[in-house]
Amino acid sequence: MTASENDLGMMRLALDQARLAAQQGEVPVGAVVYKGQQVLAQAHNLRESTNDPTAHAEIIALRTAAITLDAWRLTDCTIAVTLEPCPMCAGALVNARVARLIYGATDPKMGCVETLHKLCTEPRFNHRLTVVPAVLADESAQLLADFFRQRRGTNTQKKV
Predict the structure, then answer these.
(1) How far from 115 is each of 98, 105, 110, 151, CA to CA, in Å?
(2) Is the Cβ–Cβ distance between 79 and 131 less than 8 Å?
(3) How far apart are CA 139 and CA 136, in angstroms?
(4) Quick check: is 122 catalytic?
């Protein structure tokens, strides 16, 4: 399965959200929930600013989309995320009955869509998503690399 032009446009919106996160000192991850060409929600990580360990871009976007649709089942929706979802977010996607996931960079430390586990396509679950990996992956990975390189640069000053 490949990404459509619409998917690419939505991933670009997710990348814009990731850039907003970086500007706020948050890990640059962005997410967009959409149905066809209609954007239902856009979000970025807010863990640092809210001190909320669940304030991942995907969770915030799912909550907003559910409010927008007045339904917790997001069965005809796609989510574009700049980083492969963690176990919490992958589980939320399954529970929300999201139809499709497109994501950018893989996450070798927490990725639970294809890297460490395959939660979104687990045959024992009552719902599975269609997954399209590596959509604008280089751009997504570069945002993360730049963010952490900058963080390390400011945190590596010699202590007196």
Answers:
(1) 20, 11, 8, 25
(2) no
(3) 6
(4) no
How far CA 54 is from CA of 44, 63, 88, 147, 159, in Å, comes to 12, 12, 8, 21, 33
pLDDT in tens, 42-86: 999 999 999 999 999 999 999 999 999 999 999 999 999 999 999
Beta bridge partners of 38: 35
Gap between the Cα atoms of 17 and 14, Å rounded: 5
Are 133 and 114 spatial neighbours (Cβ–Cβ below 8 Å)?
A: yes
Count other Cβ atoms within 10 Å, centred on residue 154.
Answer: 7
CA–CA separation, 42 vs 39, rounded Å?
8
Catalytic residue among 5, 26, 48, 58: 58
Is pTM beyond 0.85? Reply is yes
